[in-house]
Amino acid sequence: MRAEERSEVDVSTPQVVVHRDKELMAQAAAARLITKVVDAQAARGSASVVLTGGRNGNALLAALARSPARDAVDWARLDLWWGDERFLPEGDPERNVTQAREALLDSVPVTPERVHAMPASGGRYGSDADAAAEAYAAELAAAAGAEDHVRVPSFDVLMLGVGPDTHVASLFPEHPGVRERSRTVVGVHGSPKPPPTRVSLTLPAIRAAREVWLLAAGEDKAGAVAVALSAPGELQAPASGAYGRSRTLWLLDRAAAAKLPPQLYPPASS
Ligand SMILES: O=C1O[C@H](COP(=O)(O)O)[C@@H](O)[C@H](O)[C@H]1O
């Protein structure tokens, strides 16, 4: 069986899509997300999506905000969660939720109770990121169904930006968080990327999603993409341990795909 045929049937094989540049990638990913949410709402009544921070995640949300097709989404029947958060005070411009509100959420009619931001520092949990992580894990567990073995909801789509060091969410190479096997959310201390204190979903929580989409654009991501897709261990390259139950999709621009070995490069790209 040829590689392109196998990727249609083997859910453990990541699918790679390469777009001309980062703007087109953001627009195409936004269109893809709209379709996925509309389909999930038609099939199950509501949809759940896990958002990512970072440049590519925010570019996708901004593209979605500009798309006329955004009105096809029933925003009131959408649950939004986060893959990670910088543990900073409420409203801090570096918080992923602050950036998501600015890029999209302030301009669409989401239901506030369905916007599940991770806790901020200085609030109920003070400076205790571990307590904040525990609280978020409890919120996820409360939303999980009886059939969900990992105590998180069956997210329809979980998006992750890929860092130049192959980190996803706030799971960094060789850091304790990437080794976590029982908890669904952890406090992250001493992050190599500022700010040092964060809260993150773990790999078991990520892998409970129906679909995991990894976003990477720009030449600074090319090495990370090539390494993560060349099957190293997830401790060294956390992005390689991020996959979905029914689909794993890598959405790239040409610059980020530049170092992919030829056998991993998809046969067609836009
Ligand atoms: O700090 C973070 O970084 C990653 C990647 O961000 P990027 O700007 O290099 O694309 C992001 O996905 C994560 O959510 C965020 O907290």
From TrEMBL:
User: Pfam families, per this entry?
Assistant: Glucosamine_iso (PF01182)
The record's annotation in InterPro entries points to: 6-phosphogluconolactonase_DevB, 6PGL, Glc/Gal-6P_isomerase, NagB/RpiA_transferase-like
Q: Which CDD domains match?
A: 6PGL
The catalysed reaction is: 6-phospho-D-glucono-1,5-lactone + H2O = 6-phospho-D-gluconate + H(+)
Do the record's keywords include Nuclease?
no
Q: Which GO terms describe its molecular function?
A: 6-phosphogluconolactonase activity
In the record, the note on similarity to other proteins reads: Belongs to the glucosamine/galactosamine-6-phosphate isomerase family. 6-phosphogluconolactonase subfamily.
Q: What's its EC?
A: 3.1.1.31
Q: What GO biological process terms does the UniProt entry carry, in alphabetical order?
A: carbohydrate metabolic process; pentose-phosphate shunt
- Which pathway is recorded for this entry? Carbohydrate degradation; pentose phosphate pathway; D-ribulose 5-phosphate from D-glucose 6-phosphate (oxidative stage): step 2/3
Q: What does it do?
A: Hydrolysis of 6-phosphogluconolactone to 6-phosphogluconate.
Among Gene3D superfamilies, the record links this protein to:
3.40.50.1360
Is this entry keyworded Translocase? Answer: no
Q: By what name is this protein known?
A: 6-phosphogluconolactonase
Any coiled-coil ranges, and where?
none
User: Which keywords does the record carry?
Assistant: Hydrolase
Under the heading SUPFAM superfamilies, the entry gives: NagB/RpiA/CoA transferase-like
Which ranges carry the Glucosamine/galactosamine-6-phosphate isomerase domain? 21-250
